Amino acid sequence: MAETLFWTPLLVVLLAGLGDTEAQQTTLHPLVGRVFVHTLDHETFLSLPEHVAVPPAVHITYHAHLQGHPDLPRWLRYTQRSPHHPGFLYGSATPEDRGLQVIEVTAYNRDSFDTTRQRLVLEIGDPEGPLLPYQAEFLVRSHDAEEVLPSTPASRFLSALGGLWEPGELQLLNVTSALDRGGRVPLPIEGRKEGVYIKVGSASPFSTCLKMVASPDSHARCAQGQPPLLSCYDTLAPHFRVDWCNVTLSWPLPCSWGPLCPASHFLRQP
Question: Which CATH number fits the domain that encloses residue 76?
Fold first, then answer.
């Protein structure tokens, strides 16, 4: 009974806070070819007093779309594990997406049926710094997409991957749910995950270990049900279970045309 009395005033505040009010506006700056992640926190859409946490009884879901269109732009995706969890907008903008895009987000309180809106102004530009011609994509079977979108697990993945790459800064380029690549929805058994593809880029070349695991010989072994040619210690285990038979590498080819080199010749996959 005491617990019920404790949450009652908070729920009253929530019902008042998640009203159909004028849309908030936030400006964000995604970069072409770099992963963009924006968290839709319940706290952002609820006018709560300072230092008051969102109670677990609140159920909020979100709907996001490109202004003037029913859906999101092709490069941007939305995911939310449950109404208790935050939502995520994520993706990697392409050169064709440069410029201004406005995303309209509506939050629905599933208990009170109130709504609130937010307008995200995306100013999409080019990244600064060196090019990242050496790119690798990994299928991580131990995680779902929303589990690697927060900054902490993403940084942990890059840090662990550094042990399998030549020294140099690694950057996260894209995150894609395995379901969006034709993967199957896992059985409702504890511990089963959907899987997620994580794409990473660097100005530094690949290590011999990475080149070997993505080689035709390694792929041939995988096709026969044998383990891949992983010649180094798996620094990603046990936190990330990578499918080493599903590693894709891309790197620059020699080209004397400079910036006129076609994209299909600039990057090569084994």
Answer: 2.60.40.2820
pLDDT digits (tens, 9 = 90+) for 80-97: 989 989 999 999 999 999
Residue 157 within a domain: yes
Residues 74 and 163 in one domain: no
Q: Is residue 226 part of a domain?
A: yes
* Distance set, CA 211 to CA 92, 102, 138, 244 (Å): 25, 41, 13, 12
**Contact assessment for residue 245 and residue 234, using Cβ atoms and an 8 Å cutoff:** no
Query: Is the residue at 237 inside a domain?
Result: yes
pTM: 0.81
264 and 140: one domain? yes
Q: Are 135 and 267 in contact (CB under 8 A)?
A: yes
Closest CA to 161 of 233, 220, 66, 265: 233
The domain tally of the chain equals 2
Q: Express each pLDDT in 132-175 by its tens digit.
A: 998 999 999 999 999 999 999 999 999 999 888 877 889 999 99
